[in-house]
Amino acid sequence: MGSEYAIEAEGLRRVYRTRTGWLRPRREMVEAVRGVDLTVRRGELFGLLGPNGAGKTTTIKMLNTLLIPTSGTARINGFDVVRDTREVRRRIGYVFGGDRGLYDRLSGLDNLRYFAELYGVPARDQKRRIAELLELVGLTGREREPVDGYSRGMRQRLHIARGLLHRPEVLFLDEPSIGVDPVAARELRQTVAGLAASGTTVLLTTHYMAEADELCDRIAVIADGRIQALGTPAELRHRADGRRVVEIEAYGVPDTAVAALRDLPGVRETALEERGALQLLTVQSDAHVDVQGDVLRELAGIRLGRVNSREPTLEDAYVAIVNAS
Ligand SMILES: Nc1ncnc2c1ncn2[C@@H]1O[C@H](COP(=O)(O)OP(=O)(O)OP(=O)(O)O)[C@@H](O)[C@H]1O
Questions:
Q1: Which residue has the least CA distance to atom 3 on ligand 1?
Q2: Which of 73, 199, 206, 273 fits a disulfide with 280 by CB distance 3.0 to 4.6 angstroms?
Q3: Distance CA 144, CA 151 (A)
């Protein structure tokens, strides 16, 4: 069955039914995904971004047949994820971030041999396929070492190789760079870009905006179970046109102060990010209003570090989209 799209979703919804409380258990419904429409072209590198609990993992799990949608439909290369589960599974790979799913005491090579067997890669193809993949993910020469000596970045690249053993046409990559150091993350990005260049469709979820900006052809921002914005990184960045950003390093900013900043004239968004003891306060304003003086007055008495005024980035556009949802 042919389709020009690798992934198509229409009105995709998922409701979880949970029990809460112990003494008097109550049934609760959580509508995790509330009607997602999406098309991803073949060979496209598509990013799914959103805050915690937005519904990204639930969406991916419906697309890769691990969860049945409550309503709506989805197709992978034309095959329906509910009716044609087997056809879909043959065509997809799933790689999730973190450390699970590898055998630590085995070498990288033996892990791949094991999974090749499990995924039914014909014996005569295994050797060549594994060598190709080790090359693709940059592990050639390290494949005989036990995985428990691998760095996180190496493990993650081995995960990707594992997910590609059966030559999937569509690869789901859920938070691949979580916990990976910046240098290894850069190598990982190169691997992912190489995959897409070789024709594999990639659906990537990430919390790292710079990663999405660099890699993705298009991005969907999902929040509260719905797609809030969809476009190329450049198109999304335009959402922050006409704005200016003041960035302030601070220690111990109370929520009340952040709320007060939001009410200042000209201020459009505020965001507070914890970086250990340090906090990074970001204030977006209309570009023609200089809010820095007012902001600093509002923060009087709070210990501050560097203050910096700059042009908005994709991350700022993302904050604006998520705050508006
Ligand atoms: N098995 C489950 N049972 C009940 N509720 C769930 C279940 N899985 C997820 N949820 C809820 O559904 C919503 C969406 O969760 P989901 O994991 O899809 O979000 P996410 O965007 O992947 O978040 P994160 O970035 O934190 O992984 C959240 O409110 C979450 O608490």
A1: 16
A2: 273
A3: 14
Question: What is the C-alpha separation between 41 and 232, in angstroms, rounded?
Answer: 13
Instruction: Report d(CA 229, CA 239) in Å as an integer.
Output: 10
Q: List, for residues 61-100, the tens digit of each pLDDT value.
A: 999 999 999 999 999 999 999 999 999 999 999 988 766 7
The candidate with the shortest Cα–Cα distance to 191, out of 156, 146, 219, 143, is: 156
Domain range summary for the chain, segments of one domain joined by +? 5-231, 240-324
Ligand 1 centre to CA of 266 (Å) is 35
Q: Residue 55 Cα, ligand 1 centroid: separation in angstroms?
A: 6
The CATH T-level fold of domain 5-231 is Rossmann fold (3.40.50)
The vertex-234 CA angle with 306 and 243, nearest 5°, equals 45
Question: How far, in Å, is the centroid of ligand 1 from the Cα of 177?
Answer: 19
11 lines ligand 1 (CB under 6 A): no
Q: What is the mean pLDDT of the chain?
A: 91
Asked if 5-231 and 240-324 have one fold, the answer is no
Query: How long is the chain?
Result: 325
**Residue 29 C-alpha from the chain's centroid:** 25
User: pLDDT by residue (tens digit) across 248-257?
Assistant: 999 999 989 9
Does the CB atom of residue 58 touch ligand 1 within 6 A? yes
ipTM: 0.96
What global pTM score does this model have?
A: 0.86
Does the domain at 240-324 match CATH 3.90.1150.10? Answer given as no
Residues 93-118: tens digit of each pLDDT: 998 876 678 899 999 999 999 999 98
> Do 170 and 76 touch, CB atoms closer than 8 A?
yes
Q: Is 57 in the pocket of ligand 1 (CB under 6 A)?
A: yes
**Cα–Cα distance between 255 and 242 in angstroms, integer?**
27
Distance 4 CA to ligand 1 centre (A): 30
